[in-house]
């Protein structure tokens, strides 16, 4: 069973996500979204992971200063490399999330123990899209924005669901 605090937080998260998402698109993740995300991620992979990661974490800490203390045990360089590596693996398989769902669940459950809350996925999503926008510069457009919003939402929903299961089991 969900405790009330988590349920309220989750409801707020879903509400906010849909509000944000509603500005860009109304449908679920489509084949074109997946293709666009995979293609654009390949370009990000060729960039300097630490530099891109540095931009991402600076933006994240600006949007959600309360999450900064969760990262005290690791350098941002190391964390950026881990995040990019994991995102590469997830994005490669995002059209068949059921195949990697065990890994995604384990990742989400580790996040519960790092102190991550459902609402933090919204800030991470915003920081991620902002970073991609920044990396693509003038080439970024509404199609990228909409495709990434759909794919991130799918991933965040899978992670939040797994995290809630973990909390319920405790
Ligand atoms: C798209 C979703 C996310 C992905 C793919 C992701 C990926 C990762 C990976 C690969 C690690 C390395 C450790 C491990 O594998 O357990 C990690 C650690 C961590 N992540 Fe995430 N993450 C995501 C969302 C978040 C969110 C929403 C937060 C909230 C601020 C967050 C905060 C952290 C923290 C605090 C650590 C531990 C740092 C340490 O080692 O001390 N992550 N994440």
Question: How is the secondary structure organized here?
Answer:
Blueprint: H1 4-24, H2 31-45, H3 49-63, H4 76-92, H5 97-114, H6 120-136, H7 142-169
Helix pairs in contact: 1-7, 2-4, 2-7, 3-4, 3-6, 5-7, 6-7
| CATH-derived topology | Globin-like
**What would CATH call the architecture?**
Orthogonal Bundle
Count of strand segments: 0
Number of H- or I-type helical stretches:
7
Computed over alpha carbons, the radius of gyration is 15 Å
What would you say this structure looks like, in words?
It is a single chain. The chain has 170 residues and is an all-alpha fold. The protein has one domain: Globin-like (Orthogonal Bundle), CATH 1.10.490.10. Helix content is 77%, strand content 0%. The chain has seven helices and no strands. Helix 2 packs across helix 7, helix 3 (49-63) crosses helix 6 (120-136) and helix 6 packs antiparallel against helix 7. The longest helix has 28 residues, at 142-169. It is globular. The chain starts with a helix and ends with a helix. Protoporphyrin IX containing FE (HEM) is lined by residues 67, 70-71, 73-74, 79, 82-83, 86-87, 90, 107, 110-111, 114, 116, 120-121, 124, 155, 159.
Quick summary:
By secondary structure, the protein is mainly alpha-helical.
Features:
170 residues, mainly alpha, binds protoporphyrin IX containing FE
């Amino acid at each position: 069973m969900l405790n009330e605090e988590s349920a309220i937080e989750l409801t707020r998260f879903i509400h906010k996500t849909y509000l944000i998402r509603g500005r860009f698109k109304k449908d679920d993740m489509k084949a074109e979204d997946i293709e666009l995300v995979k293609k654009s991620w390949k370009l990000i992979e060729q960039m300097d992971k630490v530099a891109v990661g540095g931009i991402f974490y600076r933006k994240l800490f600006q949007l959600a200063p309360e999450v900064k203390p969760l990262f005290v045990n690791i350098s941002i360089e190391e964390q950026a490399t881990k995040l990019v590596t994991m995102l590469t693996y997830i994005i490669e398989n995002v059209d068949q999330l059921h195949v990697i769902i065990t890994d995604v669940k384990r990742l989400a459950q580790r996040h519960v123990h790092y102190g991550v809350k459902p609402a933090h996925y919204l800030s991470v999503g915003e920081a991620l899209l902002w970073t991609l926008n920044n990396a693509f510069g003038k080439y970024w457009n509404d199609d990228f924005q909409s495709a990434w919003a759909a794919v991130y939402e799918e991933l965040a929903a899978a992670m939040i669901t797994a995290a809630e299961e973990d909390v319920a089991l405790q």
